[in-house]
Amino acid sequence: MKILVVGAGAIGGYFGGRLTEKGEDVTFLVREKRKQQLDQDGLIIESIHGDLKLRPKTLLSGESAGPFDVILISTKAYQLKGAMESFRSYVNENTMILPLLNGYAHLDTLINEFGEEHILGGLCFIEATLDHRGKILQTSPAHDLVFGERSGKITDRILSLQASFSGTKAAFTLSENIEQDMWHKYLFITTFSGVTSLFRSPIGPIREQEYGLKTIQKLLNETAFIMRKVEAPIDVHIEETQLKRIMGLSYEMKSSLQRDMEKQQLTEADHFFGYLLRHAKKQGIESPVLSAIYANLEVYGQVSCSGTGGQVPRPTCP
């Protein structure tokens, strides 16, 4: 199976690297700077599951290449439009597109561009980052990628994909309920990234503070309420399940959104929180904690636009 990984960042580089290590036919669609880096140093992964260095196949957008069987996307939400243009010519009638983005709004975008039948469901759990030299650092036990047909069916193509994904040094899991899995992760990441970005703190101190813990609980309840109103297939006890998970996170753990703010980078505020709040507004639902988190991130973005904070402008800046 021919696999195209869009980008060679922390997530795509890690999972694509593990598939290459196994012997799968993997190509990384990269920009010129990253290609030069990979040509010079190789793809380097330092992981508690085993280090890896390899010379990957790379492709620049527009270069000639046959269609791919599966295209794996792990970009940030604000990079999706550019990513779609970069791989559009490598899609044919049989290509599967597997997005690993958090949230849900990206599915609507991909379906509108490529059609319902091409888009799989997917998510991942991994703590990984790129250092300043482009090395992938993966430091926690979790390195899980979950995928499946959004219909829940076990099709011939998804079994072929499972065969290609099996036997790697990462956990690739076929799900028969990927839609629910995605919404459950959306609830988790909204809560975790929301409170850590609001308080500018790792999760541990927030949990310890009486009103910090109440904020976590209120955000879980608000978000789950909105999701049920839009008929998302979430479990009846998901709030309790996710709270236990958040309480079990390591004391110093930060969300990637919080880390983006610390680095003065763009955030996925609209993709995570704006999407939910638009649905809440249509339903006449008041969501004060979710609204405060979104406002906090919007103010951060407006400071970026004005130039007073020395931050990178958001894509929505005028």
Question: Which features would summarize this protein structure in a list?
Answer:
318 residues; alpha/beta; 5-stranded mixed sheet; globular
Could you state the order of secondary-structure elements as H and E? EHEHEEEEHEHEEHEHHHHHHH
- Specify Rg, calculated over alpha carbons: 19 Å
The biggest sheet amounts to: 5 strands, parallel
Q: What structural class should be given to the helix and strand makeup?
A: alpha/beta
Neighbour order of strands in the largest sheet: 5-2-1-6-7
Please report the distance between the alpha carbons of the first and last residues: 43 Å
Question: Strand share of the residues?
Answer: 15-25%
Please give the share of residues in helix. Answer: 40-55%
Q: How many beta-strand segments?
A: 10
Task: Write structural notes for this entry.
With 318 residues, this protein is an alpha/beta fold. It is 47% helix and 18% strand. The protein has twelve helices and ten strands. The chain has a five-stranded parallel beta sheet with strand order 5-2-1-6-7, with helices on both faces. Strands 3, 4, 8, 9 and 10 form a five-stranded mixed beta sheet that branches. Helix 5 (156-165) links the parallel strand 9 (136-148) and strand 10. Helix 6 (178-199) packs across helix 12 (288-306). The longest helix has 22 residues, at 178-199. The N and C termini lie far apart (43 Å). Mean pLDDT is 93; it is low at 305-318.
